[in-house]
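PROTEIN DESIGN WORKSHEET
SECTION A - STRUCTURE
LENGTH: 218
TOKENS:
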């Protein structure tokens, strides 16, 4: 089956099969949050991005192999509702951005700074600190050695715009600056974007809209 990234709450997961990494996307909770299970194909180690909601659904997706770690992309409550239960069930180490960890009510084992490496088995991802939606939001970039990059953006980048900055012009300027300089300026158009809610996109699909985003201020 070809991966589309179109998932619905209560519906089946969608799996993006790469040579070294399997990415399983599932939608959970009343705010239609995306959670992503990453599995290293060489070691079978797993990592979860955003234990957002519905621990039973997430643990069912994780399966008997468990997870070694879970990354919370940012402090907003809809992204960690199931975190305590998932960690209790799996013993996973928790990761979050340094400046958002205090807003997450589950202790963070690993504080992430810009450029830090997050590993799942033999696969390495790079944390990018994006300021504006929250003070400590992080995206994770997987630069696939066999293909194009993949980036998990939390609520910082969606199809059609950056994440909400709650009508704060300074926060918007910060977020669009970080998204441009750390994502658009350094990654190719083929880069696949996995957001915290809704459908996936690519940088190539979004890049022509950047001037419009600047002009409208959101």
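SECTION B - SEQUENCE
RESIDUE ASSIGNMENT:
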């Amino acid at each position: 089956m070809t991966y589309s990234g179109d998932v619905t709450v209560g519906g089946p997961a969608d799996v993006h099969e790469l040579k070294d990494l399997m990415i399983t996307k599932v939608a959970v909770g009343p705010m239609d949050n995306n959670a992503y299970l990453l599995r290293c194909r060489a070691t079978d180690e797993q990592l979860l991005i955003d234990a957002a909601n519905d621990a039973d659904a997430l643990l069912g997706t994780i399966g008997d192999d468990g997870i070694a770690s879970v990354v919370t992309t940012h402090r907003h409550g809809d992204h960690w509702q199931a975190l305590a239960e998932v960690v209790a069930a799996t013993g996973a180490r928790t990761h979050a951005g340094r400046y958002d960890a205090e807003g997450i009510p589950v202790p963070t084992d690993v504080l992430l700074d810009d450029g830090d490496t997050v590993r799942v088995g033999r696969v390495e991802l790079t944390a990018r600190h994006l300021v504006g939606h929250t003070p400590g939001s992080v995206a994770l970039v997987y630069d696939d050695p066999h293909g194009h990059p993949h980036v998990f953006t939390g609520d910082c980048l969606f199809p059609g715009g950056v994440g909400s900055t709650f009508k704060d012009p300074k926060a918007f300027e910060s977020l669009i600056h970080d998204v441009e300089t750390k994502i658009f300026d350094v990654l190719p158009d083929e880069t696949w974007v996995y957001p915290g809610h809704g459908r996936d996109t690519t940088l190539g699909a979004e890049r022509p809209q950047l001037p419009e985003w600047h002009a409208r201020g959101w």
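SECTION C - NOTES
The longest helix spans residues 169-184.
The longest strand covers residues 21-28.
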